[in-house]
Amino acid sequence: MTEVEKTVAALMVLQANGLLSDFNKPVQEKEVSEDVLRAQEEWDAVETVQPENQSEGTGSLQNQSSLISFNEALAFFQTKDLSEYMMKIKPTVQRSGFTALCHWLFGPPRLQHSLHEERNLVFAMGLYPFDNTEETHMRVLQTVYKRLTGTKLDCPRYGGHWEQIGFQGSDPATDLRGTGFLGLMQVLYFVMEPRTLSLARDIYKLSLHETQNFPFCVMSINITRIALQALREGNLSKECNRRQQIIAVINDFYVATFFHLYQIWKSQHKTIADSGYVIQDVTTFVNKNPRAVIRELERYLSEKRANAIGQMDSPRGVSAGKDSFVGVCDLEPEEEEVDLV
């Protein structure tokens, strides 16, 4: 039972015993202790709190919706009629003339035809807008907020609290216009995947730093845009063909890109004033070395897991080693992945 629940329960007992009702009597009739006065004030506050924005699809402070997994949210789109958005997608970059010839000769391999359907689903999600009337959409938004902040109760659909996790205003949907619902799906993956949750919270913690702060969710949306472009340019085709997957690859690439940016931001003491240059440099590097950044992420997560296991196995929880924070210069480009076009 939480502290708030304990307080409310205690106050209910006081009210049932008639102690709180005595506050309506003149002070001369009953001498009231400071503790009971304080209890009355807390009880009045509990009774007068009203959930905000209780209109349809906006959520309520009284709700405690269950968290939603990435796979459950993905199933929603896999069963949805997305034909309207499929007609609008641009899954590849249209090239002509000498540029097309160079890309065919020196560029990344073509994506296998068997993967086109899954690729098109990704781009359709990138066009799908946030919908207040869809329960799945609301649960995804609430899950992201809860996993980053640690709260258990739903928050109002609109309000300044969204800025706490790095949206630009009171309505997160406004920031999703460039990446559609995929912008929420990828951050959902980040915070719901057990192996990456700790990293997500480390990055979120840095985003709240006094001088190195940045809007976490807005930065995440920018990275989703980078991932979409990498898929469209064909820079992820080799890895997708190798693994016979699209969604798993683009999610790993998204997390790896965020991790690469995090390394730069933290080690080089970047601030929001540097964001444009950092994003540009990160975009160039990860597009030329997609497999390298994914492998660096895997190495980091493996070492972090090994260190965590070592801490549990060592006496009295003493750490068996420290996390290895790899400097940006330690990440070598992978020549075979360089796009010469």
From TrEMBL:
ELMO domain span: 136-290
InterPro entries: ELMO_dom, ELMO_domain-containing
PANTHER family to which the protein is assigned, alphabetical: ELMO DOMAIN-CONTAINING PROTEIN 3, ENGULFMENT AND CELL MOTILITY
Protein name in UniProt: ELMO domain-containing protein 3-like isoform X3
Annotated organism of origin: Branchiostoma floridae (Florida lancelet)
Lineage: Eukaryota, Metazoa, Chordata, Cephalochordata, Leptocardii
Gene: LOC118413329
